[in-house]
Amino acid sequence: MTDRKKTLKISYVNYFGTYNPSLRTPDIFSRIFPKTKYEIILDNSNPDIIISNSQRCPIRKDLVKSVTFFHTGENYRPNYSQYDYTFAFDRLEDRRHIRVTSLSYYGLKRFIKNYDTYDVADIFNKKTKFCCFLVSNPGCRTRNKFFEKLNKYKKVDSGGRYKNNIGRRIISNTPWVKEYKFMITFENGSYPGYCTEKIGVGFKANTIPIYWGDETVNVDYNDKSFINCHNYSNFDEAIQKIIELDNNDEMYKNMLLQPWLKDNKIQYELSDEYYIKRFNSLLDEISNKL
Length: 290
Prior knowledge:
The protein is of the alpha/beta class. It is 25% helix and 16% strand. Belongs to the glycosyltransferase 10 family. One of its GO terms (molecular function) is alpha-(1->3)-fucosyltransferase activity.
């Protein structure tokens, strides 16, 4: 006879999703909660835990005893004056904080490169175009500036709403990106730890991402597999490296062969094992207070 899991009740308030472990791309809670030692159920009337991505904690007066979680997929800082626990991009050593990246939703196993099936010659032969850019938010001046600079070397195809120059908007990005040797995968802003799904889009399309945003990106990913603009003094130097790769097929293919993750393995702090351990500890703490 197995021990019955203890139940904890959760509610989502001002959040971009809800608790649904069956989703193909669930949020971090829907993906990890079912793997913990607790039974998690939705209960909007009397939750033990409230999950929100609002900058200000949206607590009803009748729910003041609920523990509060802040989770964001944006470049926002955790606010401990508003929330009990935070889940964000920041690399913080704090028992109340768990670092979560956008790619944590899906799990990073898909980024472990399988060299038994990775045919670099076939991938390279399908690269018929130079570089793509898929952006709708025009608010990042740094990204916009780089796009214009690289365009001076060769046309960069823009398939988003911003600076669209291909006559149509790209909806399904991976098949389109696969045609290109490079992809600009700049974040909306720069902050240590703030690394979204953008670089992952480039990896999964077997292109070489041109990355800017998280200056500590090389902690999680192998920056021999992409152009890390933070490794260069300025964008002109980064573009010179891109030009060199564009004109040297063997050098380009050698970069394609590099593992995307450091040592071709998931760093422990981004692994399911780590998240399950941290979530269990956190939920124990909450359960003991109830």
